[in-house]
């Protein structure tokens, strides 16, 4: 049997931008993506702590050491600059593997989204 488990989590980052006219996705500082083991194009669940919105899109890398967290396309309507988000990815793995699996959880600086 296979189950869904949390693979990665970036806990409490602030939205730095929202670009309605972009094709789609969420732009994430590539340093944060690396730290959380998130790859370009991977599906990301976005939880907005400010308004309760939950949505899914895919990750694209932003400039390293920029702290960039930008929602693009229609997702831009679900956030405001400064909103606090939790970004989560999941994996489907075998039950036995899941028992010992440890997700990559990242706690960036809440003021600038950079790694401490």
How would you describe this structure to a colleague?
Heterooctamer of four alpha and four beta subunits. The active site is at residues 25, 58. Its cofactor is pyruvate. There is one protein chain. The chain is mainly β and 116 residues long. It has one domain (2-102): Barwin-like endoglucanases (Beta Barrel), CATH 2.40.40.20. It has two helices and eight strands; from the N terminus they run βββαββββαβ. It has helices at 30-35, 95-100, and strands at residues 2-14, 17-19, 25-29, 43-48, 54-62, 69-72, 84-94, 104-106. β4 (43-48) and β5 form a beta hairpin.
Characteristic terms for this protein:
Barwin-like endoglucanases; 116 residues; eight-stranded mixed beta sheet; decarboxylase; 2 helices; cytoplasm; 8 strands; mainly beta
Average pLDDT works out at 97
In the CATH classification, which architecture applies? Beta Barrel
In this structure, how is the largest beta sheet organized? 8 strands, mixed
* Category by helix and strand content: mainly beta
Task: Based on Cα principal axes, name the global outline.
Answer: globular
Q: State the assembly state of the protein chains.
A: single chain
Rg is 14 Å
Cα-to-Cα separation, first versus last residue: 38 Å
Low-confidence stretches: none
Helix-residue proportion: 10-25%
Subcellular location: Cytoplasm
Catalytic activity: L-aspartate + H(+) = beta-alanine + CO2
GO molecular function, one term: aspartate 1-decarboxylase activity
InterPro entries: Asp_de-COase-like_dom_sf, Asp_decarbox
